[in-house]
Amino acid sequence: MTPHTFGTDLLRRSLAGTGTDSGPITHLSVIPTRTARFAEWPEWVDDAVREAFIDSGIDRPWIHQAQAAQHAAAGRHVAISTGTASGKSLAYQLPILDAMVRDQRSTALYLAPTKALGADQIRAVTSLIAGRPAFSHLAPCAYDGDTDPEIRHWARMHSRWIFTNPDMLHIGILTGVFAGGGAAGPTRGQWRGFLRNLRYIVVDECHHYRGVFGAHTALVLRRLLRLARACGSDPTVIAASATVADPAAALTRLIGEPAVGVTDDGSPRGERTIALWEPDFVPGVTGENDAPVRRSAGAESARLLADFVIEGARTLCFGRSRRGVEITALGAREALSHSAPDLVDKVAAYRAGYLADDRRRLEQQISEGELVGVATTNALELGVDISGLDAVIIAGYPGTVASFWQQAGRAGRQRTSGDALVVLVARDDPLDTYLVHHPSALLDTPVEAPVFDPRNPYILGPHLLCAATEFPLQDTEIDAWGARDTVDELTAQGLLRRRKAGWYPAAGVDPHGDIDIRGGIGGQILIIDQTTSELLGTVDSGRAPSSVHPGAVHIHQGRSYVVDELDLDDGLALAHPEEPDWTTSARETTEVVITEIIDQATHGPLTVALADVDVTHQVVGYLRTLLSGEVLDAVALDMPRHTLHTRAVLYTLPDDELAALGIDATRLPGALHAAEHAAIGLLPLIATCDRWDIGGLSTSSHPDTGLPTVFVYDGHLGGAGFAERGYTEFATWIAATRDAVRACGCDNGCPSCVQSPKCGNGNDPLDKAGAVQTLSAITGWLSGT
Ligand SMILES: Nc1ncnc2c1ncn2[C@@H]1O[C@H](COP(=O)(O)OP(=O)(O)OP(=O)(O)O)[C@@H](O)[C@H]1O
Fold this sequence. Notes:
- GO terms for molecular function: 3'-5' DNA helicase activity; ATP binding; nucleic acid binding.
- Keywords: ATP-binding, Helicase, Hydrolase, Nucleotide-binding.
- Residues 304-458 form the Helicase C-terminal domain.
- This is DEAD/DEAH box helicase.
- The chain is an alpha/beta fold.
- It has five domains: 6-31 and 297-426, 3-Layer(aba) Sandwich (Rossmann fold), CATH 3.40.50.300; 62-262, P-loop containing nucleotide triphosphate hydrolases (Rossmann fold, 3-Layer(aba) Sandwich), CATH 3.40.50; 457-514; 521-578, no CATH class; 581-782, no CATH class.
- Helices cover 34% and strands 24% of the residues.
- A seven-stranded mixed sheet has the order 1-9-16-15-12-14-13, with helices on both faces. A seven-stranded parallel sheet has the order 4-5-3-6-7-2-8, with helices on both faces. Strands 24, 25, 26, 27, 28 and 29 form a six-stranded antiparallel sheet that branches.
- Strand 17 and strand 18 (502-505) form a beta hairpin.
- Helix 7 (166-173) packs across helix 9, helix 9 runs parallel beside helix 17 (457-470) and helix 22 crosses helix 24.
- The longest helix has 21 residues, at 211-231.
- The two termini are 38 Å apart.
């Protein structure tokens, strides 16, 4: 029976006639109301700090705020993971402000993955301390890529609380501590005073640090901690996230030092109704190899957005690209123009450049009812404080459970009732299909632990050089970072030298500029808008042929460009702005060579292994797909071959066992290929990656194993930890893959189960039934049955 809640009533009214127990809704559940639990202000809190909070309307802290502040004040690194809008800011503001009032020289560094979030936090602190003499020396200030040189200079001299990001910390702060500091450090020595007095480091939204970005950030934080200690301070790290699994372990991995976690959320919350929604197949429309196509998540969400707006429900609709978001807003406006023309102007797309001011304006327009429905990219996922939002529509699983809850948490921020509806609309994709049919995998499992690998030698090596440039490296540090082999290699290459006081870089080594914290590893290709010469971004040279080949549609901050030319020698991809009606996906051939088996396990006839591999790709063409999912055409290309040294999880199965299941030599390639595709689609369930971070290969007989073999490999040089997670969680991953394929309602395979948008072989051959049989057999062997 459907419960009566704010959310179910809204759904029922919006879908009058369809009912909420049937049709596209695959699951409906209610998270009940929670009341606030308060603590007293800790005894050590200075009167001036307490008064500032009380005057801002906060009479007492919630229990988790007091607990986290207590740990931090006692000098324990602490990670707080409580819901969205649970006042995590206060948990770090409290110990920081207190330290600053007690010792006027104390400093703090706040790190956020986005500049906009840092700007929000400065605003919050500035308004909290405004007009209070006890805090007049703080001068909270941003220090990032957008900060003017004069303000940077002023900040270095005067600010006690700097708001920055890992990129600027790496290139603009750590280089300016000691005289050595890296030849790149124009601010040489100027940060020393700040670091000498550094009491706290805040790592906000710490679940963002995953994959290659996570590994880089982990090493930047370790470099920060060692430099601070070399300057004479011993800062405490406070990490915060609404959505990180086992926060103590996550922070420990990030900084390489023990940390404690706080998870008992004392903040109040309204009742939240969650609906999972699977769009129907569109009659008469077919995609690749005549597979059926579902209604797009964007079109379905547009219809829901219009319905909610008619019901007066203030709604945010999250989409994955700016273009998708604009189409959703247009679709909703179009629907309203027929049924409720006076509401057309109440719907907008959030398409500004992710600036804090744009967000403020939008928050205000929604609060005042000027806008009722807004379609937005994940730009509004972090740091938005819109009170009274009634509903959130998520058009397509956003990639991680963490992001899902971040987006879901935007609704119901009204303290008085806070009731809200969240609808996840599935895309035509195996992971989305799995989740809407297995709600507990989304709603009942803890969010995934961020996956990253700070020991990847291709990432670790350059950071060791940076560290040695900043301050001589010590043997104890090398051991703590697990870096002995990499140091030996750098020494053999003549890049590091051992002297009495530690390890130093060789003369002329200037490593900072070679590291791209958000990008990949190795050479970078610059993507340029050739009509304006604007730099749109960078891509790993290894990935360039498949992502920025001539004719590729490239999305940058939601805007669309088409690539005209890729010059791998000069490191340039030249593009022009264009909004075609299609997306592109590269077709490529792949070969895998096993270079070393790291670990392996045998389960009856099944062998599962983790291995170092060389993956060689060649892009041979690309497919153009209309936004409806319909395939327009295939275009041939001839791009150079490229080899990636990385890590893979692989499994082998003997032919005779498969033949006994009815999968003979004619069916084998299709069964393995389909099983591989679905497994790639499902790996993000257990490893915080995107399916574009990984690749795969299946073959009826691999030269290195002599057996039918399936590989799933990391798309990053040296591996980002994703394949390793696939290896350790193999049983969970493969069982979920089998369930996803089995749950899909199509006959012979479609994008919701075994077709892949980036298949190098045009999704041919694929044997859906064979994949289910193979995956079922694997789960049986794994459990010993
Ligand atoms: N102890 C408290 N009592 C009452 N209100 C509080 C308390 N602590 C914080 N708040 C209020 O709760 C709201 C949310 O706080 P804040 O933005 O810090 O949450 P958050 O957890 O950082 O949010 P996000 O999910 O966006 O990261 C703010 O309006 C803040 O003033």
